[in-house]
Task: inverse folding
């Protein structure tokens, strides 16, 4: 339970956003991996910047992201 207060839930709003992101990616013929979609949806719903090295998949979602390894 050490990190209990730091874990963001996948609630209905996140699930709905994930569904839209996944559908948009599929329409663009660029499948979005499930974990990347869930991370992006959570960041978007919580108004957060997603810190990731995987900018290729995340860039198309429209969520704010940062790659500290390229800076």
Result:
């Amino acid at each position: 339970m050490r990190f209990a207060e730091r874990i963001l839930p996948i609630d209905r709003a996140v699930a709905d956003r994930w569904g839209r992101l996944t559908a948009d990616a599929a329409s663009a013929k660029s499948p979005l991996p499930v974990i990347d979609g869930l991370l992006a949806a959570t960041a978007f719903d919580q108004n957060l910047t997603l810190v990731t090295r995987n900018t290729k998949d995340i860039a198309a979602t429209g969520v704010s992201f940062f790659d500290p390894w390229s800076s």
Observations:
- The domain at 9-66 is CATH 3.40.50.1010 (Rossmann fold).
- Residues 25 and 32 are 6 Å apart (CA to CA).
